[in-house]
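We modelled the chain as a single entity of 148 amino acids. Its sequence is:
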Amino acid sequence: MRNQVILLVEDNPDDEMLALRAFKKNNISNEIVVARDGVEALDYLFGTGAHADRTESVHPALILLDLKLPKLDGLGVLKALREDARTQLIPVVVLTTSKEEDDLLKCYSLGANSYIRKPVDFNQFIDAVRQVGLYWLVLNESLPVVGR
């Protein structure tokens, strides 16, 4: 798969470890940047706070976003991403345990590209990550980096 950055926004250390293992098991060798709360995710994306030294013009090819996050929840992150011209077109896949229909509706109304419930079974989780990686990083035609 093309070597592009994936931003994983996940506060649960077990789910983070599971996602990283699933990427490795599926030979997804992209650089994975982990943000453990919504504020850290936005700091990374906009080159502020602890990430002030980051080149802001280089955006991830994909954002995997949990909903239940400290400081700023996933809906707040998604809203901020879609309101800013610099990040409004980055693909965002919501990866959550939430089964609330209201969360699903809010995510899509705020511009999520996909909503996936985290499978409890590890093998199903690995397969879900494989499919997400295959679609968003290989099959999907992404926007050119220039002009983002």
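As a brief sanity check on the tokenised model: DSSP finds five helices and five strands in the chain. Helices lie at 13-25, 38-46, 74-83, 101-109, 122-139.
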